Amino acid sequence: MACNACGQALADITPVDTTALRGIAQAFQAHCAACDQDTWAVRGEPAAVRAFYDALEKAAGQQVQLGKAGPASAA
């Protein structure tokens, strides 16, 4: 996972409990020490992901930068 603001590789990634978040399969949060910004990675149904980011923006009081992820790899 890389910082959405500066692109720095992030090592301390925290999984978010998405059990009660319908349509969200996975979510992670990390803080970038290089630029002092938070980055969120969210995977799920498009409408649910947009609602998640809308809630983040409301809580932060500002627009959050959306990242882009490719399809989940099959392990």
What does this structure look like?
- By secondary structure, this protein is of the alpha+beta class.
- It is globular.
- A 3-stranded antiparallel sheet has the order 1-2-3.
- 20% of the residues lie in helices and 27% in strands.
- It has a domain of 48 residues.
- The mean pLDDT is 85.
- It has 1 helix and 3 strands; from the N terminus they run βββα.
Shape: globular
- State the end-to-end CA separation: 18 Å
Report the biggest beta sheet as strand number plus sense, adding barrel if it closes: 3 strands, antiparallel
Number of helices in the DSSP assignment: 1
The beta-strand count equals 3
> What do the pLDDT scores average to?
85
Query: Per DSSP, what share of the residues sits in E-state strands of 2 or more residues?
Result: 25-35%
Structural class: alpha+beta
The secondary-structure element order is EEEH
Q: What oligomeric state do the depicted chains represent?
A: single chain
Strand order within the widest sheet? 1-2-3
User: Percent helix among the residues?
Assistant: 10-25%
Low-confidence stretches: none
Radius of gyration: 12 Å
Question: How would you summarize this macromolecular structure in one to three sentences?
Answer:
The protein contains one helix and three strands, in the order βββα. It has 75 residues and is of the alpha+beta class.
Note the topology.
Layout: E1 13-15, E2 24-32, E3 37-44, H1 46-60
Antiparallel strand pairs: 1-2, 2-3
Give keywords.
75 residues; alpha+beta; three-stranded antiparallel β-sheet; 1 helix; 27% strand
